[in-house]
Amino acid sequence: MNEPRKWLPPMSALTAFEAAVRHGGFSRAGEEIGLTQSAVSRQIAQLEAMLQTPLFDRIGRRVRLNDAGRVYADALLPALDRIRQATARAAARAPQTALRIATLPSFGMRWLAPRLPLLTARHPELVIDFAARSQPFDFTHEDFDAAVHFGVAKDWPGVQMDFLFREEAIPVCAPDWLAAHPLRTPADLLNVPLLSQTSRRDAWPRWLAAAGVDGSELALGPTFEHFLMLAQASAAGAGVALIPSFLIRPELDAGTLVVPFARPLSNEQAYYLVYPPEALSRPAVAQFRDWMLEQAA
What we know:
By secondary structure, this protein is α/β, with parallel strands linked by helices.
């Protein structure tokens, strides 16, 4: 017998078993999948013969999943769910010119969105659906072609990563707030509200250390999940925020945010375009990737 097929039960038997597990019996399982109770019983008996172990205990006319059946179900049911999801994605797959890209929210709004007319001009056939994601995910379980990630290469194993650029975070605040709270030296920041982005609570201590100020016992102010929320709070006079300069260029140009100290903070983390290893076999993904690298350069 061909080895790959030797341990692959018939799908009809697996479907009957999965339905019986969910419904706790053969009758209701049969109603769901369009078989009689006896037909479901035969399918499961075929599966038990293959496994050489009972999966259900028969008690009179009732059945109950036993320990062996529970172990098998725990391993099998998630696999069947993945098959369903993969099949649904394949059936619903848009044309080869359609892409679904996951992006960090603020990056998508301030870096990607303003550049999209350039992408459309170059590749008018591409239709791109952007969705917000802030954390790495498994491409086999999520229907994305690529994603924008901030971090280091080891953060997201099993993917291809193209370096885009590093960021420089700068301290900013509202001009009226700064007039009311003069900041003469970096040490003055220890006495005012310091606003932070949720995933970068260490940014202010690192900035202060680089400025020669001990921030080890610093009491931070409010934190915000997204940088644009952080920028709005600072522009409203809530305090001083540390924000990547490329994300707040409109506020800086308009004067709604000002820079009290021209000391940027950078580190080894960077923005990357990430995608499954086989993704570039699709011309649309390769076109989007080339365009992203050009824009980042």
